[in-house]
Amino acid sequence: MQFLIRWVLAPLVRVIWRPRVVGAQRVPTTGPVIFAANHRAAVDTAVIPLVTPRPVAFLGKAEYFTARSLKGRLVARFLTALGYVPVDRGNAKAGLAALDAGRTVLRAGGAFGIYPEGTRSLDGRLHRGHTGVASLALSTGATVVPVALLGTDRVQPVGKKLPRLAPVEVRFGEPLDFSRYDGLEGSAAIRRAVTDEIMDAIAELSGQVYVDRYHQRPGSQAA
């Protein structure tokens, strides 16, 4: 499956959608790297691995992996090949286990992708980031590369299952080094400062309006 993705699907996607990629030369080719991106559509996690110069592992909603239909099983295999790590968003312990999986990837020198907002933005704005991304960076010493995805919400609008043809752009920002905070992972204030710095970088890349509160899905209760 990895072979098909890298050598068949990726070139096919580039031919059909012709995504514009900006700043790929900024991505470190070795060592632990966190790709911290905005989140506009379900297709985002397929787009990033297909345009980055190295494999990327991601956290993914557990329900993507539990469908019993043939289509669901095929999707699960595809996402697994892309590097998805399933996480139950309603289970705090499972979420912690997923972050532990991220640390395992990073400590092995791999690349790990995460959406600090925690969910897709339904209003087009960039929302306050959760501090899991800071915890990963501080505990592993990984470099953080901010990523902006533009146009993926038109490729796969909310409620649409099949992707459409629409211009897509992926922007990679300057790598962020947080080694100045070595040993301070336990500080909530430091984790928040690191996360806010990452979100500022994503906002600058994406041009989105930043909202300093967590994104609330329809029907959810405010935290």
Describe what you observe in this structure:
- This protein has 223 residues and is of the alpha/beta class.
- Helix content is 38%, strand content 17%.
- It has seven helices and nine strands.
- The strands form two sheets. Strands 1-8-7-2-5-3-4 form a seven-stranded mixed β-sheet, with helices on both faces. It has a two-stranded parallel sheet with strand order 6-9.
- Helix 3 (70-82) links the parallel strand 3 and strand 4.
- Helix 4 (92-107) runs parallel beside helix 5 (132-140) and helix 5 packs across helix 7.
- The longest helix has 19 residues, at 188-206.
- It is globular and about 45 Å long.
- The mean pLDDT is 85.
- InterPro entries: Plipid/glycerol_acylTrfase.
- GO terms for molecular function: acyltransferase activity.
- Keywords: Acyltransferase, Transferase.
List strands and helices in order, with pairings.
Elements: H1 2-16, E1 20-22, E2 33-37, H2 44-51, E3 57-61, H3 70-82, E4 84-87, H4 92-107, E5 111-114, E6 126-127, H5 132-140, E7 143-150, H6 152-155, E8 169-172, H7 188-206, E9 210-211
Parallel strand pairs: 1-8, 2-5, 2-7, 3-4, 3-5, 6-9
Antiparallel strand pairs: 7-8
Helix pairs in contact: 4-5, 5-7
Protein name: Lysophospholipid acyltransferase family protein
GO molecular function, one term: acyltransferase activity
Domain Phospholipid/glycerol acyltransferase: 33-152
